[in-house]
Amino acid sequence: MNYYSLNHQAPKSSFKDAVIKGLAPDKGLYFPETIAPLPKSFFENIDNLSYSEIAFEAIKQFVSPEIPEETLKTIVEETLSFEFPVIQLNENISVLELFHGPTMAFKDVGARFMARCLGYFNKNNEKEVTVLVATSGDTGGAVANGFLGVKGVNVVILYPSGKVSDIQEKQLTTLGQNIKALEVNGTFDDCQAMVKKAFLDDSLTNKMQLTSANSINVARWLPQLFYFMFAYKQLHNKHKDIVFSVPSGNFGNICAGMMAQQLGLPIKHFVASNNANNVVTRYLVSKLYEPKPSIQTISNAMDVGAPSNFIRIQEIYKNNFENLKQNLSSFSYSDDETRVAMKEIYNKYNYVADPHGAVGYLGCKAYLKENPNTHCVFLETAHPTKFLDVVEDVIQEKQPLPEQIKEVIDKEKESFVITGYDDLKDFLLN
Ligand SMILES: Cc1ncc(COP(=O)(O)O)c(C=O)c1O
Ligand SMILES: N[C@@H](CCOP(=O)(O)O)C(=O)O
């Protein structure tokens, strides 16, 4: 598959080049040249397919011919070595749990898939690659875990100091080996801007091969479309009009859901559920896209003021505002509303939601008010114990720690503080 840059000022790239470069030379995000819908029979027969078979069929066109089919099957099987259960809360609302992977957030699938693609492309140790990642909480840990020990790959994670949860910080600062963490005195947007600047800095790119493991990178972003298919497999016999409420920050996940829909997955509607960082909620009302500096919230991984992937969403809808609005609603919630929702989910359904999932739940409720005959699935994008302080404080109950969290909680943090782009450059060059 060839990919073009959404800035339209760079040559087309193969999948391999798009993965290795991360961002196109004109600063644009890569987008697949074609999207061929899967045959109807694929969806009709979905009950008889395993998750790996579904994922293989869904991603094949985007990675071939550079990744041979047998290799792709192995990559997909190794990537998906955990569960993706849907739990029904009531007649109209279900939860899709995306936190059963090694770092207990939905990023694990994309990170593991991308690490294996890069590992395959670098199997002959052609050239060392430095993976730069900006994180508002979960990407960093997932990438650290997914890329740990991958030959020929060095990972540098930038995160906003004091703005990620204790457990998220442990997950991204304690692994050592080929993983380094840089603590930035600023916001996630500052981290993301520095990463993008580095890709375009000749004095760096002449000396090293840099790529991104954020959803900018097609190999990190596209595998997220699997989730929507896995939920459909579990729900389509019980519910007809399925709506997804996606807690959104950088908008990679919801955009991947829209790609699943482009492949033919019968999804009725999307809800982008936001915290106070609500550039898209405002856009759908005013038609004005006005990114703002991010605001710190209790759903910290969604504290993104300028979502990278919104441009891909615009591309899917050919920049047609009315078409987009027909398929996407968006709502924004304060921290107080999020806390009330967490309590409600616990008291009504005996289910412990994390703050991000709770924002998704609120999005479902808002959509269902106007569309009561649909079934809304909110994505539980991270395990509640990743946000232990908030969760225990809200539901007033101690939470047992899963093994994945116990493994990191007592480890020593190791990070390097940087104050700006020059420090990042020095770090990378030295
Ligand atoms: C727990 C959690 N929920 C939601 C999001 C938002 O996802 P996206 O950036 O794909 O919109 C993130 C981070 O990306 C996250 O870590
Ligand atoms: N919420 C993310 C922010 C980066 O998103 P990505 O999907 O582009 O990597 C995080 O947890 O770091």
Automatic annotation (TrEMBL):
Native species: Aestuariibaculum sediminum
Cofactor(s) listed in the protein's UniProt record: pyridoxal 5'-phosphate
Domain Threonine synthase N-terminal per the UniProt entry, residue ranges: 2-79
Catalysed conversion reaction: O-phospho-L-homoserine + H2O = L-threonine + phosphate
MF terms in GO: pyridoxal phosphate binding; threonine synthase activity
UniProt-recorded name of the protein: Threonine synthase
Domain named Tryptophan synthase beta chain-like PALP: residues: 93-370
Keywords: Amino-acid biosynthesis, Lyase, Pyridoxal phosphate, Threonine biosynthesis
Gene from which the chain derives: thrC
Domain of life: Bacteria
EC number(s) on file: 4.2.3.1
GO terms of biological process kind: threonine biosynthetic process
Pfam families: PALP (PF00291), Thr_synth_N (PF14821)
Record's keyword annotation contains Amino-acid biosynthesis: yes
Family: Belongs to the threonine synthase family.
Transmembrane region(s): none
PROSITE patterns: DEHYDRATASE_SER_THR
Positions bearing N6-(pyridoxal phosphate)lysine: K107
Metabolic or biological pathway: Amino-acid biosynthesis; L-threonine biosynthesis; L-threonine from L-aspartate: step 5/5
